[in-house]
Design brief:
Elements lengths: L5 H15 L3 H19 L4 H16 L3 H18 L9 H13 L3 H13 L13 H12 L4 H15 L5 H5 L17
Helix pairs in contact: 1-2, 2-3, 3-4, 3-5, 4-5, 5-6, 5-7, 6-7, 7-8
Length: 192
């Protein structure tokens, strides 16, 4: 994340390794340290530092600190919108994706849905189907629909997301929308 400085990037990589190993508190610690290093080395306003804050917010949610994660991701998104004022800027994707996911986990489903739609918008009008950045907004959209008790609509989005990407590291996020419910009926699932 920090321009020309590998230490924050190394801490971020360590955080990701811990995340994929299910070590949520170590993930949180490494991403917090990466954000603090980027802040100290680059200041608060560069996009690298702001993106690192969004990534740290996502780690907070993994550690079960949903309200703090939501607050941090919203602040990071506000900072990035000041730095990148163009609404559909691809540089907003990380902040919007983090804000959408943390909003859902904090049970702020209307905000989650809005952020998920905006995150999808940053990918352009016709993103390629293989673009893995489509996975998170689709899953968050499904989570947002599951929250206000719209299960028929909610099941289709995460199920289609899993089918279209099959990316195993996203399965926990996507299947969280099902919340222990039985799998969706076959007619709701895209077979593509």
């Amino acid at each position: 994340p920090a321009q020309g400085c590998p230490l924050p990037l190394s801490r971020q990589s360590l955080g990701r390794c811990n995340r994929f190993l299910g070590r949520d508190h170590e993930d949180d610690t490494a991403h917090r340290e990466a954000h603090e290093l980027s802040l100290r080395l680059n200041g608060a306003s560069p996009p690298d530092t702001i993106s690192q804050r969004s990534i740290w917010a996502q780690s907070l949610s993994g550690a079960g600190r949903f309200e703090e994660a939501y607050d941090q991701s919203r602040q990071a998104l506000a900072d990035m919108r000041r730095a990148m004022p163009t609404p559909g800027s691809p540089l907003l994707w990380t902040g919007l994706s983090s804000a959408a996911n943390t909003a859902c986990l904090a049970q702020r489903f209307a905000e989650c849905e809005a952020f998920a739609r905006q995150a999808s918008h940053t990918l352009g009008p016709h993103p390629p189907a293989y673009d893995l950045r489509l996975t998170d907004p689709r899953a968050d959209f499904g989570l947002s629909l599951a929250g206000p008790a719209r299960p028929v609509m909610a099941f289709a989005s995460p199920a289609n997301t899993l089918r279209s990407t099959g990316w195993p590291t996203r399965r926990p996020l996507v299947t969280a929308a099902w919340g222990g419910a039985p799998p969706p009926p076959a007619q709701w699932v895209c077979r593509a």
